[in-house]
Write a structure and sequence with these properties.
- The complex is a heterodimer of chains A (249) and B (431).
- Chain A has 249 residues and is mostly helical.
- Chain A has two domains: 1-52, Homeodomain-like (Arc Repressor Mutant, subunit A), CATH 1.10.10; 59-223, Tetracycline Repressor, domain 2, CATH 1.10.357.
- Chain A has helices spanning 5-26, 33-39, 44-50, 54-75, 84-100, 103-115, 117-123, 125-144, 157-174, 181-199, 202-218, 222-226, 228-248.
- In chain A, helix 1 packs across helix 2 (33-39), helix 5 (84-100) packs antiparallel against helix 10 (181-199) and helix 6 crosses helix 7 (117-123).
- The model of chain A has no long low-confidence stretch (mean pLDDT 86).
- With 431 residues, chain B is of the alpha+beta class.
- Chain B is 57% helix and 10% strand.
- Chain B is globular, with a radius of gyration of 23 Å.
- Classes of the chains: A mainly alpha (249), B alpha+beta (431).
- Chain A binds chain B through residues 77, 82, 85-86, 89-90, 93, 177-179, 181-182, 184-185, 188-189, 191-192, and chain B through 98, 101-104, 106-107, 111, 118, 155-156, 158-159.
Chain lengths: 249, 431
Amino acid sequence: MRLSAEDQERSRQRLLEAGVDIITDKGFRAATMREIARAAGMGEATIYNYFPTKERLAYAACAQVQRQVIERLKAYPDFHELTLREQIQQLIETELTCWQGQREFLREIFALTWQSPFGAAAHLSEARALLDSIVVELIDAAIEAGEIPDQPFRDIMPRLFWDYLTGIFAYWLADSSDHFDNTTRLVDQTSAIIGDVLQTALIGKLTDTALFLLRTHVLGHFSTLTDTGGTLRERALKAKRRFMERSDG
Amino acid sequence: MAEELATGKLARAGTLGKAAARIAAGEMGHRLKRPFLSTEAQQADRAALDNANARRLFEALSQLRGTATKLGQMLGMELGVLPPAYQRELEKSFYRVPPLSRPLVRKVVEGDWGIAPEAAFLGFDYEAFAAASIGQVHHAMLTDGRKVVVKVQYPGVREAMASDIALLRNLSRPLPEGPLLRAALDEIEARLAEEVDFRIEAENTRLLRSLITTPHVEIPQVISPFSTERVLTTTLLGGQHLDRWLESDPPQDIRDRAAQALYDVFVECVRVHGVAHVDPNPGNILFREDGSIGLLDFGCVKRFPPHFRKAMPRLLAAHVAIDKEQAFAAYAELGVPADRLTDDLYERFTRPFGEWSAEPLRHARFDFGMGDYSARGMPFLQDLMRQDSFAGAAPDFVFFNRTIYGLTKIFERLGARVAIRDRWLEPVSAG
């Protein structure tokens, strides 16, 4: 029986929801595609039409959450009036809000990606691309508005931001404070730091400094290092002569 | 010198632990020296020590930037328990909470109300207009047009509180004021717990608004649906804080009226209702052109038990009469143990302190314009507070005296003449 596109989409949603439930309940390893299919009211064969593997299903759920984040941010009134730092903070807070109901599922994802990081990197690409698009948009808008200077390493910003978000999630998963206040504070403080880093184009300045030091003081001396015999002996003789002259005078 | 902010309990313990160690070492030095110093030298040494201690203590506190500083403020706020050096340091170490960014304001409000601020009000200003001790305040307008003030709490304040109090307790160990400090700390801990739950402040505000009858005093109205654990909404009161108001050079009778209203509402609260606003500092009072006042910030409210309310007027009468028996009877009623009520105590502390306390009661109206009443009282109050003897009555006494002291400082700034005697003493019948 052919399903309409709508019905297919609904089935997909049901599978994702069921998948999150079962994986949260049983843990990723123990959860089976069959159980998930059953919980979604589907035959086991059908589930594979939507998701070839359990991993794919799990990561698709992550991408789903990411889409929710985007929707929420779009619905935020006057989002563009916030400073970049506030936008970053709001982005993180929205991520946390959207993941709130599936915190234990996120824990399973962390365990999963820890076990197979390369696989994760490949499959999480969808979620990641969605996040990247937000980050790029925020930074570009801020540069255009003159709020921050053009960043020389703008291209790696999304990657850095992904790492930052992962760090916040990890902290959040271990946070036992009331209302997750500790995570709120961490986000508050780190988003301020990031805002400052972007404001001062600090990353660029740091790398410029590192490059300067490297060029001037290390690379420039390669010739000296290879020619140690001659130059060093010359210098030693000069030093000796100077010393002799001083002791005479 | 850039300091790294100490986060995490161990780091905080390290900071305060070091401060405690340094203070203890300093104290030991003083104790060893003492038998060999003359009295003046002892006092000077003590003062120098206090200064050094104070500095160390508050260097540590200001690095922590958490409730430790707030505690320090409450403990020492002008007097009560700590020597002047501590007080000065305290005034410098301002309690600072980071400002809430707009996403954070939204998060806290939404967390408590389920809706964003702009959805709850006709208008909401995301830019705070003032800092509060553990958050900040915003202007807003209700749908019925009334202007309100919305106080939003910084998340995570309560997390830091319990450990900070524990640390301060440890810190107080080497200090001579230790026992009294710790008694006061218990009281303060309870009060701080109240401060981080704005529903309690809402309740206090409603209560005082319903009870107070002293004329020329306004208490804000709580807007109940928008007053929750971390967000408090009250009506906006008009008026200016003390400094600004004084710039307009209000006439003497207006100053007197304001001071009298302030004093009378305090007495009404203590004697009649047994519940008072115990933080009358210029930040919590609004002055108006007509001499009326507005009171703010009821997070910090003290309940005085009946025996205190009865004993206080008796104590003041005893001080006026310079009557040792009466004074000691009142002390006993206040909870000071009988074996502490010695002649030595009377001569060295109770009597001089009593004379100072009684001064304003010797006139129909006392003129605080002379300006040095509070300054003269400091040494007595300080010494008195050091006495272990008062540990039993400590919390009530500390807060009562602290409030009085705070009020007199305001009266001095106002240069006001205040009727005090007939608020406490029974009128003397002629013949």
